[in-house]
Amino acid sequence: MTSTQFKGTALITGASAGIGAIYADRLAKRGYDLIIVARNAQRLAALADKLGKETGRTITSVAADLGNREDLRKVEHILRDNTAITVLVNNAGVGSVASILQDNADEMEAMIELNITALTRLTYAAAPGFVARGAGTIINISSAVGIAVESLNGVYSASKSYVLSFGHALQRDLADKGVRIQTVLPAATATDFWDVAGYAPQKDKPTTMSAADLVDAALSGLDQGELVTIPPLHDGDQWLRWEADRRAFGRNFANAKPAPRYAK
């Protein structure tokens, strides 16, 4: 049991296993009470019991399918009403390795509902309270395929590109209001994600990171003040250069006339 100073409450989605469960463990040990959210009520209850005994923190489990609008609204209400919440970890998500010719549109729509819609609505639910209190942290789990978009399923990659872009806009809107935004880009990580996505062998490849290493690195990045954390990228300056180029590139769009190459 820990005597770490209480730091508020962290709400973590997709918390019953994998990256979300590691975040729950690490944040509880850092002094946070937890609200852990996932579909699997039995796993959540077991995790809540384990972490409560190990850390002495108050762990509340909320069984919810964030792809279901009624369940999503339930979690939104918690974020709006519970003023003790100081951290939101938007981790819940689903992926695929299939091409457009192998997946169907209904499955892709469900992916968008979870990876984009739920993350967005929960962020919108948390942000006003954080701003009103002048403090709060939102951690959004994107993916390296949000940049390396050709690597996996196109809808999955696009959904993670959304999370990265959304994080940039949130930083612009909320940074001066006391709210921290961190976007985390894991690459291949050894979790059940790959079983659901349809490529379980990825978990055992030598280039696949453990969930514990991923989360520990992400929290170290948070401690260092990083806005975007890419744990598998060893040359951190490469991201800084790429991001600087992107921002400079955007300024070149301010032209009222088309480029000369389009002249007839």
Name of the CATH class: Alpha Beta
CATH architecture descriptor name: 3-Layer(aba) Sandwich
Q: Provide the succession of SSEs.
A: EHEHEHEHEHEEHEHEH
Structural class by helix and strand composition: alpha/beta
In order across it, which strands form the biggest sheet?
A: 3-2-1-4-5-6-9
Helix content estimate: 40-55%
Main sheet record: 7 strands, parallel
How many extended strands? 9
CATH-defined fold name: Rossmann fold
User: Distance between termini?
Assistant: 74 Å
- Our count of domains comes out at 1
Strand content: 15-25%
User: Quick one: overall form?
Assistant: globular
Fourth-tier CATH superfamily name: NAD(P)-binding Rossmann-like Domain
Poorly predicted runs are: none
Radius of gyration: 19 Å
Instruction: Figure out the total of helices.
Output: 8
What does this structure look like?
The protein is of the alpha/beta class. The radius of gyration is 19 Å and the shape is globular. The chain has a seven-stranded parallel beta sheet, sandwiched between helices. It has eight helices and nine strands.
How is the secondary structure organized here?
Elements: E1 9-13, H1 18-29, E2 33-38, H2 41-55, E3 59-63, H3 69-81, E4 85-90, H4 105-133, E5 136-141, H5 154-174, E6 179-184, E7 189-190, H6 193-197, E8 209-210, H7 211-223, E9 228-229, H8 236-251
Parallel strand pairs: 1-2, 1-4, 2-3, 4-5, 5-6, 6-9, 7-8
Helix pairs in contact: 1-2, 1-7, 3-4, 4-5
Descriptive tags:
Rossmann fold; 47% helix; 8 helices; seven-stranded parallel sheet; 264 residues; alpha/beta; globular
